[in-house]
Amino acid sequence: MQTQIISTGFEDDAKDAVRQAADLLRAGEIVALPTETVYGLAADAFNAAAVAKVFEAKERPSFDPLIVHLPKPSALEEVADLPEEIAGPVKKILNKFWPGPLTIILPKKDTIPDIVTSGQPTVAVRHSKDPVFKRVIKEVGGPLAAPSANRFGSISPTSAAAVEEELGGRIPLIVDGGACSEGLESTIIRVEAAEPKSRIFILRAGPITKEDLREFGKVEFAPRLSPDDGQPEAPGQLASHYSPRTPLRLLESPNDFKPEDGKRYALLSYRNQPKDGYLELTEYEKIAVLSPGSGKLPEAAVRFFFLLRELDESGVDEIIAEPIPNRGLGVAIRDRLSRAAYSTVE
Ligand code: TXA
Ligand code: MG
To answer: In ligand 1, which atom is closest to the CA atom of 126?
Structure first.
């Protein structure tokens, strides 16, 4: 299959891209679209055959459910129930963070085919703020199921070029909306009624942080499980994920490193500071810096998947990653790093 890429830089191109994407989606085809987090591979959420194409193109196991994106917040009632006991806090949370990088798990309605939710009684729902995504989904007029537009387990794409590397030849259209403004997948939460405060469980750390959610309830991270422990609560959150083909080692302390003779290393540095102790460890073939100089977490988040992909393609034998501060957005970046490193942990 020939994969067409349409840019949206000029309004005429954008119009063309939006129209073609919407036509394909309404006809039961799948299309890669930009969102503010990462690129998504979209299908009509009410069309089981279209959704099956998403699983096929991604080689995604059928146990891993998709996120349903809404054209507008009020469309929530078409896909999910909002139980009375959590309606208050959930409405407040959605008012604050939608449109934006927040996904919430709610009981599903029968309108959503079982293939979307992998047979679970719940559905993950999100409302993106990306301007191109918004135009396409408005034109389609109904919800779109869209996981990240990468092959299963691989690095999430934050540019149209990255989508092409992952899915080129497998899908008819990629809409190029430029680089993603957040760079990490949405925060996934579940809300539970409790007194005196409702409980908010973070199933996947993301751009909306624990600190951001605190005013709406008691926030905790859902326990993370290894593949041997069975299914994690968000089934796609396997311990090994976001994996580059090149082995990656998250080096918590520079003292833990002994370079091997003849091995070529790349460094994923946080802020390129000699005092952090990583720059001089060996003669790296390549160094990529997440937040040059200053160490700002939002900047590191935006660049993370992009630089990880770049290092993966640089042909080195091993990628060494510096740790990221474990606060705010850093929690989400660390989460991706440790999953990327998982398969290479002894
Ligand atoms: O930012 C994002 O969320 C991006 C953009 C494209 O929207 N999408 C994304 O989708 O990251 P995906 O499929 O790569 O990750 C969705 C995660 C998976 O870990 C999946 O297991 C979890 O959401 N999920 C989906 N439905 C669920 C459900 N009913 N209960 C628990 N977890 C669910
Ligand atoms: Mg994904």
So the answer is: 7
Assessment of whether the complete model's pTM goes beyond 0.70: yes
Which ligand 1 atom sits closest to the C-alpha of 60? Answer: 13
C-alpha 332, offset from chain centre: 10
CA atoms of 230 and 207, how far apart (whole Å): 27
Q: Are 209 and 219 in contact (CB under 8 A)?
A: no
Nearest residue (CA) to ligand 1, atom 18: 236
Tell how far the Cα of 205 is from the centroid of ligand 2, in angstroms: 13
Cα 57 to Cα 243: distance, rounded to the nearest angstrom: 18
Nearest to residue 141, comparing CAs of 22, 34, 39, 13?
A: 22
Q: What is the DSSP letter of 274?
A: G
Lining residues, ligand 1, CB within 6 Å: 35, 37-38, 40, 64-67, 101, 103, 105, 117, 120, 122-124, 126, 146-148, 185-186, 188, 203, 234-237
Residue 69 Cα distances to 50, 104, 136, 233, 325, angstroms: 15, 11, 11, 20, 31
Q: What angle in degrees, to the nearest 10, is found between the helix axes of 297-312 and 160-167?
A: 40
Strands 199-204 and 122-127, bridge-based pairing? unpaired
Which amino acid residue places its CA nearest to atom 13 of ligand 1?
A: 147
- pLDDT at res. 323: 96
Q: Are 245 and 337 in contact (CB under 8 A)?
A: no
Task: Tell me: pLDDT of 344 over 50.
Answer: no
Yes or no: say if 146 and 41 are a contact pair by the CB < 8 Å rule: yes
The string of pLDDT tens digits covering residues 231-270 is: 666 666 666 677 899 999 999 999 999 999 999 999 999 9
Enter the tokens of residue 118.
Answer: 């992998």
Sign of the dihedral through C-alpha 54, 127, 290, 235: negative
Q: Report the DSSP beta bridge partners of residue 219.
A: 200
Please name which ligand lies nearest the alpha carbon of 41. Answer: 1
What is the 8-class DSSP label of residue 179? Answer: S
Q: What are phi and psi of 59, to 5 degrees?
A: 55, 45
pLDDT digits (tens, 9 = 90+) for 3-17: 999 999 999 999 999
